[in-house]
What we know:
Layout: H1 17-25, H2 36-39, E1 44-49, E2 55-62, H3 65-84, E3 94-102, E4 110-116, E5 122-129, H4 132-144, E6 151-154, E7 157-161, E8 166-167, H5 168-174, H6 180-200, E9 210-216, E10 221-227, H7 251-260, H8 263-283, H9 285-295, H10 303-317, H11 328-340, H12 348-352
Helix pairs in contact: 4-9, 6-7, 6-8, 9-11
Amino acid sequence: MNNNKPSKKKIPYPTNDSLNNYLFKHNRRSNLPLDYKDLLRFEQAVPLLNLEGEDTHWQTVFFSPSDIDEIYDSLKKIYALLKTDGDTKVHDHLEVARVDHCLYGNSKPFRIRIINKLNDNYDHYYVKRTDASRIFGLELEHLLSPDFIQYLVDGETLIEEHVAGLPGDDFIGRELNTSEFNQIRIAKEFVKFNERCFVRLLGDMRSYNYVVDITPDIEGNQYRFRAIDFDQQSYEGKKRFYLPQYFKENNPIIFLGIKHMNPKTVNQYQLEERSLIAARIKSNVDRVQELLGIMQITQISSPEKVKLLSKELTKHHHSDTFHSCKNMGEIVLANLQLLLKKDFKQSIMEFTA
């Protein structure tokens, strides 16, 4: 269960005409009233602390009196584009409660808190820099996972909806001391999450890059692990980077799996998830093929990392299908083709020992 780290700071890659046309065709492009760089005009910032008084690694930013009205009005319009297809009737009872900026991570995002003045309910969304790899990650999540993802792109600006759930590191610290029944369900859902990430090659799913959605059920809770960071979509060259089971931050959940599941049970959950992914591909095959075709002509990683990942997946799957892969798009396609042919191999003992 060795920890994996990115080889170095991720390089953002620009979108090309083919990807931009895809985004326009599928209603992902929008003329935004504000750019990412506009939010960099803040004049002051103070650290944002959590309820325990601990640093969250976010800072709340403040704009000048001459800028704030225009910026906040634009942020409300973006929220309307994201949530109500641009219907600005919601503006009257919405206001921007706070703008936070994260100095860590590749995208250095802004988090916008929108509050409903009628009932004090709030929502969030994020303003980030555009990166082709991140866009492919968002789109693959939308097409291959159980969840829909809403996002918008305009030039160098990317808008992402907030994914609700308890942050993975908080979940591990607070929710694992529960009934055996719930522990089994947690371990089961992590197996499925692990499988989804590896099939579509989404990397760096350590505990702070996903959330857990908890739904009370008749005799316990239902859990769903959801990725919230798509920076590392098909970027690194090491196979283990795409398997959440190998990040030490996730070890407490791995130990639950070792405690409560045997290899046969793990294999059952892996097969279930692969079958669901295959069904999603078949139900939207034209769009998946279109996206993967564009992914194959878009650079989102270095030739060295492509070569290394091809080599490692060849060894893992005992298949020569990766030998001819020249880019990450071709590798993802090869992985999915193995899945559809039921030749996809996942080592059971890697998870349970």
